[in-house]
Here is the input.
Amino acid sequence: MNRWNAFRVLVFLLPLPFGLDTGWAWSFAGMTVFALLALELRSLSMSQRFNQLPYLPLPVAFRHAALPLALIWGVQIWCVVQWLVFSLSPHDSLVSLQKGVTYAGFFTLCLLIIDTRQRVKEIIWIVVLAAAAQAIYGSTMTLSGVEYGFFQPKDKYQGVATGTFLNRNHLAGFMELSLALGIGLLLGQPASYSGSLRQRARQVVKMLLSTKVILRLLLAVLVIALVLSRSRMGNSAFFASLLIAGGLALLLMRNKTTATTVLLSSLLIIDIAIVGTFFGVDKVAERLQKTTTDTESRDEVTRDTINLWKEYPVTGIGAGTFIYVFPSEKSDDINSTQYYNNAHNDYAQFLAEFGLPAFLALGLLVLWAFWSGVAAMRQRNSSFYQGVGFAVTMAIVAIGIHSTVDFNLQIPANAMVFVLILALGAIARWSPHQNRTHSFRR
Here is the structure.
């Protein structure tokens, strides 16, 4: 198996098992990432020698991503310092450091190995197919009443879709990211109907026989799973991000056609009015209506997490130490029997664990990728890369909203897909329109 095929298999298997939220699963994924990264760097070195170049033939997007690379690796260096000096639980910080290094390595690998338009298209398809497998499995378990997770009976979240994740909200987070990529891919392949009636009929038939129809059907399946997860913020974040990114696309995209507006409108109308209604979007709305500060303790947990950060504003308590520190720090108005291994607010948890400087570095990395996605929509002439820019923009908005009440970025599978999307921001902005090949890279 060559490097690219191994990379595609790795991305497809990310949600298994339990969203990589087990020690052996994410450790294996980490070893695979660095093995592929080593092989990719070796291939570049061979290409340099073969072509007698004075420098490594790095992809264009990688060369323009010096700032985000420095930020993500700089945070890992800070985590080493935390682990050695400041951490309130060095063992937990070491585990978190290993995950962080894996994410940084994966970000680097994505920028190096996804170096052609065809590869961008393929990796988006892989994520969508992985999400479709989760969606079909999770929906089938829920609708049939079998209620299995990853080859074992579910002991909680029965009656809602979880796929092979432990938590319905994490399946919803995976669906959000995958839907954004799939919708971006659809937008990147605009339909054009012109000429005589006969020519237009041929164009419609050609479209119906293309992979676009398959992709659109798969996106409907993903929406079904998202609705069946009954995740309040997952559904809210998806539709809000679609509205926000869609508005930006209609405002910024060059050479947009009527088909672009029709596609974005159909996504809302079909997915909400038809798919969502049939599979119980009203139950999601009912959960939203019943949500109050009296029935939820997440706001109190967020409050105490912020207070925890205030005690260590610069150094933080140590990456990965929330599970160790929070039980002794939570206030009396939080149920003493309720166990919190995460803060249910990624912003508060990252801030408390990493400290303000590293938190700002991570925020700047995400903002850089977001701006790259917006710039791709506004500046690229390529419809394909405009669509990828849309996907990056929508995904960041969706997970940004969802992260206010959940911890998707603490789940390795979702975090790695998000890292892939951050890398796609640079790729959408800077990759050349035409594919190029290298002697030793295929």
In short: Residues 3-430 form one domain.
